[in-house]
UniProtKB/TrEMBL annotation:
Coiled coil: none annotated. The keyword Acyltransferase applies. GO terms for molecular function: acyltransferase activity, transferring groups other than amino-acyl groups. InterPro entries: Acyl_transf_3_dom, Acyltransferase_3. It comes from Xylocopilactobacillus apis. This is Acyltransferase. One of its GO terms (biological process) is lipopolysaccharide biosynthetic process. GO terms for cellular component: membrane. The lineage of its organism: Bacteria, Bacillati, Bacillota, Bacilli, Lactobacillales. The keyword Acyltransferase applies.
Length: 659
């Protein structure tokens, strides 16, 4: 602990020890989360706002319990749980029932399992419900995306509030010094981080992302800090050296956190193996700097804007997803106005959160059970209590409609997102892809070896190319193939050519969707396409295939549906492909996501740097043909799959034919 200028540590006279800088941290944390949900390509690590909240919670609750034990000699569990419930429950219940009411009135396709979601949130078990009933990938591109997904963190904090006072009591009873208590809690935090690293699986991150045991690391680090750095015992007066030390530690921590926020993506394996621990550790150091009354960070983070956002941050957090989901369901083409629409969403979120803070949270923070009953009875007569009247008048219809929607949801038969036509089609195509690749990969390995031999002998390569050209002409006349695709603009010569060309294709669910047509036109193609694949995975994946010797002379890439595509990803990919291979990039068509246009702009811009990089303008081709797409406006339907496959084939074959 840093000592004061006189060499002592004095307890502050203030009983509340309210740290205004924490409002600033809360404001930053909740804004990061919102920006991450709105624009993950600009704020790839915005989800780190959640660990900031968790460290603050662990720190403040532990400081509060320490102060209570010091003043009263015991913990008043009833009072503790009552304070927490009055602080958290009213806004949560209002949000759950208000969202349920909207679902009942305007979006009944979300009624399925609604009562389970609401009940698990009210009992603070929603994170585990998420693990066992996790949101399907297909919900992200349909009208079934849950407006409650983000509430997992409230369940973890709720479980912490229920369990931690008892753990704290045991530590105080059986461990005699705060330093030892802090070490024990620190060990528990490291165990949590270790468990996250061990249980991490790229195939399904729900277990480590939502698990109480794996996400407790952040809260426990805050608890450990409180034992050795309690705000009530930090001296306001510091000597120059101590102040510089605290500010330097806070500054370095803030810088590291900022770098991670802009560089560490949610699909990165490093995030779960060590990244979450590292970020939480630096967040803990920053919180130590902010909490010290003699440091500069508390003052830096204290201003009217941060103070206001920090106060309503709880409401902002719980209402963000319902607003975004419902808004984007009504206004589907988000990519047309990637700035205006998010600004509108933020304004709506702040407006609802402000109302919630002043008329729900503040009202219930002061109310008692008896006064609540009186206010309910006199709902239309509260002339001298405008706050109570407005709050109650808003709450009553919300509760009635919300309760009705939850009762109806018990009998609702919602469509399983894994059993939609799109989901069934992608599952079937994935099986076909695996079966096709077993044979195609073996042939590709042999063909690639032959291709390398031809590269070494240019004259032989030219003569081989001429003989192949004549062969295609003969076959086109005598043995026509895939004639059903001629009406899509493919000549019989090109279709014959496609039968003999080896390709390596890497993509996401959109490519899986169009896989059957591609494999029919290009029997020698090897397609590696999976749902939810991020473009950031591409360089490593291509490098792995290069090491195995199974990359064809022609590469087709269809990525970007699920997130940002950066120039660095393209540069790394083109370097691995080398100038000896033609690389075809398919533009993204995902109008419900803000990154569509930026991804396509990056592709066009980067194509000017490489002679062997070719752009297939799928977005421009399909943009005026929604009838070719499923309701998500992203994945091709039956007719769209044929259009997708033939359009890509036509672009590839016409380019290669000219060579």
């Amino acid at each position: 602990m840093v000592r004061g200028s006189r060499g002592t540590v004095k307890e502050n006279s203030s009983s509340s020890n309210y740290i205004t800088g924490f409002d600033g941290l809360r404001a930053i944390g909740v804004l990061l989360v919102i920006f991450y949900h709105i624009n993950p390509e600009l704020f790839p690590g915005g989800y780190f706002g959640v660990p900031i909240f968790m460290v603050i919670s662990g720190y403040l609750i532990t400081c509060s319990l320490m102060r209570e034990v010091r003043q009263k000699g015991k913990i008043d569990y009833r009072s503790f749980f009552s304070r927490r419930a009055k602080r958290l429950y009213p806004a949560l219940v209002t949000m759950l029932f208000a969202t349920s009411s909207y679902i009942l009135l305007f979006q009944r396709n979300l009624l399925d399992k609604l009562w389970q979601i609401v009940l698990s949130n009210l009992t603070y078990l929603y994170n585990w419900w998420q693990i066992f009933n996790g949101q399907s990938y297909f919900e992200r591109f349909a009208d079934n995306e849950s407006p409650f997904t983000h509430l997992w963190t409230l369940s973890i904090e709720g479980q912490f509030y229920l369990i931690w006072p008892f753990v704290f009591f045991l530590l105080y009873k059986f461990v005699k010094s705060n330093q030892k208590r802090s070490r024990i809690v620190l060990v528990l935090a490291l165990i949590s981080a270790f468990e996250m690293a061990v249980l991490y699986s790229p195939a399904n991150i729900n277990r480590v992302y939502y698990g109480t045991d794996t996400r407790s690391v952040s809260i426990l680090l805050g608890c450990a800090l409180a034992f050795v750095w309690p705000v009530s015992r930090l001296n306001r007066h510091l000597n120059r050296e101590s102040r510089i030390l605290i500010d330097s530690c806070g500054g370095i921590s803030a810088l590291v956190m900022l770098i991670m926020i802009f560089t560490v993506r949610d699909q990165s394996s490093g995030l779960y193996r060590y990244g979450m621990l590292i970020f939480s550790a630096f967040a803990t150091i920053l919180i130590a700097a902010v909490s010290h009354p003699g440091g500069s960070f508390n003052r830096i983070l204290t201003n009217p804007i941060f103070s206001f956002i920090g106060k309503i941050s709880y409401g902002i957090y719980i209402y963000q997803f319902p607003v975004m989901i419902f808004f984007e369901n009504k206004v589907k083409l988000i990519s047309k106005h990637p700035i205006i629409y998010p600004v509108i969403e933020i304004i709506i979120i702040i407006g609802i959160s402000t109302f919630s803070y002043y008329f729900i949270e503040q009202y219930f923070a002061k109310v008692t059970w008896s006064s609540l009953k009186d206010d309910f009875k006199q709902i239309f007569e509260l002339k001298n209590k405008p706050q109570s009247k407005i709050g109650m008048m808003a709450l009553v219809p919300i509760l009635i409609l919300g309760l009705s929607s939850n009762v109806l949801s018990v009998f609702a038969k919602g469509q399983n997102p894994n059993d939609t036509p799109l989901a069934r089609k992608i599952k079937a195509n994935t099986k076909l892809q695996k079966a096709h690749n077993k044979l195609a990969e073996k042939k590709a390995l042999i063909a690639n070896k032959e291709s390398r031999k031809l590269e070494k002998n240019k004259s032989l390569s030219r003569s081989f190319s001429k003989s192949q050209h004549k062969k295609y002409e003969v076959l086109a006349k005598k043995h026509p193939v895939n004639q059903e695709y001629e009406k899509y603009g493919l000549t019989q010569f090109e279709l014959q050519m496609g039968q003999h060309i080896g390709l390596t294709a890497i993509g996401d669910s959109v490519m899986v969707d169009g896989q059957p047509v591609l494999t029919k036109i290009f029997p020698k193609i090897v397609i590696d396409a999976v749902v939810s694949r991020q473009a950031s995975e591409l360089p490593d994946l291509l490098k792995q295939k290069a090491d195995q010797g199974i990359i064809a002379d022609t590469i087709v890439i269809g990525l970007g549906t699920n997130g940002i595509l950066t120039p660095n990803i393209i540069d790394e990919t083109m370097k691995i492909a080398t100038t000896q291979r033609d690389v075809f990039w398919i533009t993204d068509h995902v109008p419900t996501r803000s990154w569509q246009d930026s991804n396509n702009a990056v592709l066009v811009q980067e194509s000017h740097k490489y002679n062997n990089m070719h752009i297939i303008e799928w977005h421009k081709f399909v943009n005026s043909h929604n009838e070719w797409l499923y309701a998500d406006l992203t994945h091709p339907n039956q007719e769209g799959s044929v259009q997708y496959g033939t359009f890509i084939a036509k672009n590839i074959l016409k380019t290669l034919e000219k060579k």
